[in-house]
Design a protein that fits this description.
The chain is of the alpha+beta class.
Length: 100
């Protein structure tokens, strides 16, 4: 099954710029230790102080906040307000979620 763990922080541009090298290293370690995850960073198009870390999981495990995601969220909590959510794909033809 494929699902997404999205961890977003709202901070200031300067704070995020200073923290990005450490965060990038943490994410590289996550990807190297877990072959079932792909990660990426997203920057808000309008607010320079918003950053999201996206983990795209391809596992047989049910969608849930992972230990790795919780560690990233904890790291980001020192920078600003954090939102940590889990998303699953839905069928385009239906209003009910479908698991891939």
């Amino acid at each position: 099954m494929k699902w997404i763990e999205l961890i977003r922080v709202r901070s200031s541009e300067a704070t995020l710029r200073a923290a990005l090298p450490t965060l990038a290293e943490q994410i590289r370690e996550l990807e190297s230790s877990r072959p079932d995850v792909e990660t990426l960073f997203l920057q808000h198009a309008l607010y320079d102080g918003d950053l999201a870390v996206v983990a795209i999981w391809q596992t047989d495990s049910p969608a849930a906040k992972t230990r790795e995601g919780l560690l990233v969220a904890e790291s980001l909590a020192g920078l600003g307000t954090v939102d940590h959510a889990v998303w699953i794909p839905t069928s385009e033809l239906s209003n009910t979620p479908r698991r891939i």
